[in-house]
């Protein structure tokens, strides 16, 4: 049913990633994900979650009073009703971000939604899931997040930006997998190669280093 959504958690915090890092934000974390990235830090979303009417979710978000909202997961687009939720949040006058894997079509989404899509590098174990044409069509207001677990990942992604993703207009965000790539190494690679985009660090993991949920 497109009028309900399976929810894991709904809470306010600050944005930990993207160009919106540091902004107060309401997070709507949806249940389910068919991907199994080796470095996943949200495996608790793999369950069924709690089924909620979309209208109730929107009312709860509005009641929290934070105008920036991110729909995340898991993989939110794995739920068929996710586009309806995104549209309803936009219709409520909210600034809406979508965090997605880049493994699902995006063209049918409300154009008011800012898409933050992952490019799955080889070390994630899910690089075959990348929908290259979808990622290449990302707009200037969208963002492409590249999480690297090795220099091989970095070089692979850099090559992709010049080939399959040459037409991608999105802002480029580079991240290092914690315990795999020191942040200083990623900085070095970015400077050596003059790679496009910017580096980001997961702000919420600095503020709450031992907390996974509700941050």
Descriptive overview:
With 215 residues, the chain is α/β, with parallel strands linked by helices. It has a single domain, classed as TIM Barrel, CATH 3.20.20. Helices cover 25% and strands 25% of the residues. α1 crosses α2.
Brief digest:
With 215 residues, the protein is an alpha/beta fold. It has helices at 54-64, 82-91, 132-136, 151-162, 183-193, 203-207, and strands spanning 4-14, 24-30, 50-53, 68-72, 95-100, 114-119, 143-148, 171-176, 198-199.
From the helix content, strand content and strand pairing, which structural class follows? Answer: alpha/beta
Note the gap between the termini. 29 Å
Identify low-pLDDT runs: none
Instruction: Kindly provide the name of the CATH class.
Output: Alpha Beta
Give the count of structural domains.
1
What is the total tally of β strands?
9
User: Strand order across the biggest sheet?
Assistant: 3-1-2-4-5-6-7-8-9
Report the β-strand fraction as a percent range. Answer: 15-25%
CATH superfamily: Aldolase class I
Major sheet size, sense and barrel closure: 9 strands, mixed
**What is the N-to-C succession of helices and strands?**
EEEHEHEEHEHEHEH
Mean pLDDT: 93
The best one-word shape is: globular
Number of helices in the DSSP assignment: 6
Oligomer: single chain
